[in-house]
Amino acid sequence: MPIKRLDTVVVNTGSQNDQHSVSVPPVYLSTTFKVDLNNEDAQNYDYSRSGNPTRSVLQHQIGKLYRVPQENVLAVSSGMTALDVILRGLVLLNGTDNHTPTIIAGDDLYGGTQRLLNFFKQQSHAVSVHVDTSDFEKFKTVFQSLDKVDCVLLESPTNPLCRVVDIPRILRFVKCISPDTTVVVDNTMMSGLNCNPLQLNPGCDVVYESATKYLNGHHDLMGGVIISKTPEIASKLYFVINSTGAGLSPMDSWLLVRGLKTLGVRLYQQQRNAMILAHWLENSCGFKPTRTNKATKTRFVGLRSNPDFKLHKSFNNGPGAVLSFETGSFEHSKRLVSSKKLSIWAVTVSFGCVNSLLSMPCKMSHASIDPELRKERDFPEDLVRLCCGIENIVDLKKDLLAAMVDADIIEVRENGKYLFNKLNKNLAVNTTIDDLHKPLSIYEEFYNQDLIRKDSELNIKSSKL
Ligand SMILES: *Cc1c(COP(=O)(O)O)cnc(C)c1O
């Protein structure tokens, strides 16, 4: 059978050996399953903490997304639970009287990850050393300065600074000099559709994703998935889940199976919106460094102006839909994010949802990080983060423009034909007006090819033959 594309396999749930030949697998809410003492080996389920048929369907689907057998996949109650289970099952137990498990992690981490690592540190269960993992030389120096590294935790691109971590290079380095170090990748920013760190050469040991984000895509459930390189790793993690009851509930598993079906189209539209917005912010709105003002900037891994554009493209299938920009002024950014003119962009944390979201990380998701530490890590206080949903791009731009005008950042000139950035004096043609707006294809921008045109060129050639 030919190997099918990932956006195809997540749509199909296959035949479930169901007595009624259902098209959609049912939700099994039952917590208990009857036991046949004469035939115990044939029994797959007895108690839902240990296993549930609806959770199994989900694990099967995620297995297809990462091209691993279902046994290697575990679904848990949130993305943070996924990391907790991984650290308990694979890292914390390395502790002895004279060794505290050591974790190297990035310094632009998801806030919740930082909090969990701090917790383990305070309890002396593990020490975490933070380094800018997007700087390979720095990472290498830190790694070599430590006696024993039990775990390397990577996240790429980082959020919200959109820095790219060279995961393939770090994996080659770590697996060469310290094969026993567990390399864990938080793949939430990309999802399995854009990146599969298990299939790199060498691959990582475990990947996890917050299913609350792209996988489900509707902000109506919390979940996490853990995908292991081998069944042996998965069984160590299963032990923790079975012991603690961290498995995803049947109803949420069912919703996630449904959400996952549209991952391909959702992510396509979200990435397309993100590509167009990033260009517009950089070019029409002037959020780019100028000769006199270096403080304005658009950050997105899909932009060619991003120094990591090529690196990101080398191991990912898409740019994701999270971007950020700096206005150069904390006060103006704050006015923008609190503008009453915003009617589509919701001021909310999180990302991956079908709705577009806007936030100011230093006041929201990163507010728990000490301002001094933010400064030390070069965290821009004026940063505005955009997480694109699936709405029409023309409306998204107009909504944001109205708020930027309201916040006194942009002045619209000549009936909307030109945009003047009041903060850095950039003047540019606007592309918000419908007839000027020629939609770009992310394939033209990201892959530098137009699939449709390529197909028609092939047709001309074949008709000549
Ligand atoms: C949201 C998120 C998490 C945590 O997931 P939850 O489902 O909210 O627990 C972990 N890592 C990243 C990168 C995230 O964005």
TrEMBL record:
Keywords: Amino-acid biosynthesis, Lyase, Methionine biosynthesis, Pyridoxal phosphate. Its EC number is 4.4.1.13. It is an enzyme of class 4 (lyase). GO terms for cellular component: cytoplasm. The modification N6-(pyridoxal phosphate)lysine is found at residue 213. Pathway: Amino-acid biosynthesis; L-methionine biosynthesis via de novo pathway; L-homocysteine from L-cystathionine: step 1/1. SUPFAM superfamilies: PLP-dependent transferases. It comes from the Eukaryota. InterPro entries: Cys/Met-Metab_PyrdxlP-dep_enz, Cys_b_lyase_euk, Cys_met_metab_PP, PyrdxlP-dep_Trfase, PyrdxlP-dep_Trfase_major, PyrdxlP-dep_Trfase_small. It catalyses: L,L-cystathionine + H2O = L-homocysteine + pyruvate + NH4(+); an S-substituted L-cysteine + H2O = a thiol + pyruvate + NH4(+). Its cofactor is pyridoxal 5'-phosphate. GO terms for biological process: 'de novo' L-methionine biosynthetic process; transsulfuration. Signal peptide: none annotated. One of its GO terms (molecular function) is cysteine-S-conjugate beta-lyase activity. Belongs to the trans-sulfuration enzymes family. This is Cystathionine beta-lyase. It comes from Saccharomyces pastorianus (Lager yeast). The gene is STR3.
